[in-house]
Amino acid sequence: MITVYGFRKVTPEVIGLTRDLRVLWALEECGLAYQVHGLDDFANELRSAAYLEINPFGKVPAIDHEGLILFESGAILTYLAEQSGRLMPTSGAERAQALQWAFAALDTVETPLTEIAAIDLFDPDAEWAKQRRPALVTMARDRLAVLDRVFSDKSYLCGEQFTYPDILMATSLRQIQHTDLLEAFPNVTSYLERCDRRPAWRKCLDTYKQRLAG
Description:
Glutaredoxin, four-stranded mixed beta sheet, 8 helices, about 10% strand, globular
């Protein structure tokens, strides 16, 4: 049984965007048994001594798989894909390309999108935010333009197979769904819609929202 450390209570602005959803989605896709250990962000449970033993950075997600502790969503998803034999290409070259796209999602693409979301959700009227946001939008558009070309002739990052980097990429892109940035990139929009329609995603998102509403 895998224990997932995720949110039980969190600020409403980020519901549906938190990174524990990546792990929950992957677990549903992989068909692995798991339980959720919910943490209350308002009660500062992420900074408790007990949780800092799990993740010294005081962030979610983290997992405990029979004593093996892992944090960082990219590392966890890679591990789950390897453990289950799902969400992972079979050949060595394809596995390397999947890892490449995982890093691209978390580093190249997600960075400006996360900053835009943080500004829009928490500091839209701050002077520094008004000065910073245009540069982030330019960066985001550059990244999205590349992705739009990537998805011009394939359904997912590694071709026609949905793999673990698609979870990382789709959840990164979801951070800017409140903006109009995706409208200029139809292939990216179609890609995100394909990912959002997956039954495993709908199931984990519904369960997650019920837990946070409880």
